[in-house]
Amino acid sequence: MTQPVTLPLWLLVLVLVFAAVTASTHLLFPSVRWYFRRRAERLVGELNKRLERPIQPFKLLRRQDMIQRVIYDPEVVRAVTEYAENEGVREDVAFEKAKRYAREIVPSFSATAYFGVAVRATRWLSNKLFDVRLHRIDDEALKAVDKNATLVFVINHRSNFDYVLVTYLAGDRSALSYAAGEWAQVWPLSRIVRAMGAYFIRRRSHTELYRKVLSSYVKKATEAGVTQAVFPEGGLSRTGLVGPPKLGILSYIVQGWRADGHDVVFVPVSLNYDRVVEDRVLVAAGRSGTRRFRASAPEGIRFTFRYVWRRLRGRETRFGVAGVTFGKPVSLTDLAQNTADDRDLVELLGERLKDDIEAAVPVVSVPLIMVALLQSGGTGTLSGIAHQIKNLRDQLRHQPPDFGLADGDDTALNAVLDGLVVRNILSQSDSTYRIVETDIAAFYANSVRQFLAADAVASIPELATEKKSAKT
Questions:
Q1: CA 288, CA 282: separation in Å to the nearest integer?
Q2: Longest dimension (CA), the chain
Q3: In this structure, what DSSP letter does residue 461 have?
Q4: Whole-angstrom Cα distance, residue 273 to residue 161?
Q5: Cα–Cα dist 195/6, whole Å
Q6: Model confidence over 294-338: pLDDT tens digits?
Q7: Is there a single domain that holds both residue 149 and residue 126?
Q8: Which of 11, 352, 451, 10 is nearest to 152 (CA)?
Q9: What is the pLDDT of residue 297?
Q10: Which of 71, 171, 348, 406 would give a disulfide with 119, using CB separation of 3.0 to 4.6 Å?
């Protein structure tokens, strides 16, 4: 027992490595995890003191625990059985498929990543790129929303920058849980998006098993009071119009609401920009009739470096105004009094939110310029455009929030027109401006179409239209 044992050096090293790993796993790692978890809990406690809506415990669950809750939901278990029978596979195979779906959907929220990095970064980026203007239709009603209610921000989808802008503006209220599309499922972006609390959606998945897994997560988040943000159009608008809602996500949220439980309150959020960075990509997608945009990561990187270089040389300025309107909250409990059927309730909710968002889209300068030029046959002088914009403003219906240039500010108008010339959307010959890309002009003009008089609407060319779908 006490005799020495001779070992080769490589074997001794291997034994020591295994011993170190075992000791770390059983002794060190749990202590380190406990330490960082305690720090995270203290951070969340401090954040909850200053947030209007505290971070819900459901968001702070370990991701693995959240996945287990989803896949053992009775409805998911039934869907697994049905999938196995319909596809002719074993139940354990179908269960693994459901688990893969859950791993894909469920986020991994980090309060440090969200409030320590994301909110600060979005604030900096938003103000560097845009002149951000905010309007609240009924701020008192928003502040009066029951603290126990689930808050859902419902947003029109103009640009991928929408995520950045809304995260910044809602940063003092709560941590938003976004419904992110397949575009974000690219490493390392997917890990960053998950850490911010977003959950992923396959827009084109039509299997019942996938929908049950997604529905289970959304319902549990709604029941737990998680503040959410959704884009009901299901994708970026390719026409500039506010598209019809896809009712899938809204139906899952309604399913997570109970008449005898806490309320679910929807806040319509309307966005508009003087410049949509993806404008040409979106219009091209509209022409082809597909949502498969041709923009690539290298193109995005080239655009970023080109913009930064021009900005440093003074040849580029900010992108103009980014206008945001927070609309009047819509209570699901109040809305449900108008119908007893869940399907009718979802359709009524979708229509109400679309109408509220559309009616509050901010008016900004570039759309007004485009309408003014289209009304004048595609050409105009500085003074002619200024006069036409004033006439358009006088005839605007529904009194939308107006963040456009002040009447008579020819210097600012000239700067906006020069920027459109640089982008080759307009051309300039002497004192006359002419539209070069009519589809781009129509894309911007469509964003304020609902406020225009009939003759102005008639001057806007038709672009590819969005098709309505009731599925996610």
A1: 10
A2: 103
A3: P
A4: 10
A5: 50
A6: 555 566 677 777 777 777 777 677 899 999 999 999 999 999 988
A7: yes
A8: 352
A9: 58
A10: 171
pLDDT value at residue 38? 64
How many helical (H) and strand (E) elements, i.e. helices and strands, does the chain have? 21, 11
Total count of domains within the chain: 2
Looking at residues 18-27, what average pLDDT do you find? 68
CATH number at residue 420: 1.10.10.10
* Same domain, residue pair 348 and 371: no
Give per-residue pLDDT as tens, 173-208.
788 888 887 666 666 667 777 777 888 888 776 689
Asked if 345 and 397 sit in the same domain, the reply is no
Task: Write out the residue range of the structural domain in which residue 158 sits.
Answer: 102-277+319-359
pLDDT of residue 30: 59
> What is the total residue count of the chain?
472
Rounded to whole angstroms, the Cα distance separating 248 from 181 reads 13
What confidence tier does 126 reach under pLDDT thresholds 50, 70, 90? very high
- Model pLDDT, residue 205: 67
Q: What is the pLDDT of residue 313?
A: 74
Q: Which of 317, 324, 319, 326 is nearest to 274 (CA)?
A: 319
- Lowest model confidence (mean pLDDT) among 202-211, 219-228, 340-349, 391-400: 202-211
Q: Check whether residue 334 and residue 217 sit in a common domain.
A: yes
Bridge partners of 434, per DSSP, are 379, 427
How many CA atoms lie less than 13 Å away from 10 in the CB half-sphere?
0
Cis peptide leading into residue 188 (ω within 30°):
yes
Q: Which residue has the tokens 């609401």?
A: 257
Instruction: State how far the Cα of 247 lies from the Cα of 249, in Å rounded to an integer.
Output: 6
Task: Please check whether residues 244 and 260 belong to one and the same domain.
Answer: yes
Distance (Å, whole) CA 13 – CA 19: 10
- Name the residue with tokens 């929030």: 401
Contact between 126 and 322 under an 8 Å Cβ cutoff? The reply is yes
| pLDDT surpasses 80 at 51 | no
For residues 269 and 404, state if they share a domain. no
Q: Does residue 221 share a domain with residue 258?
A: yes
Amino acid at 28: L
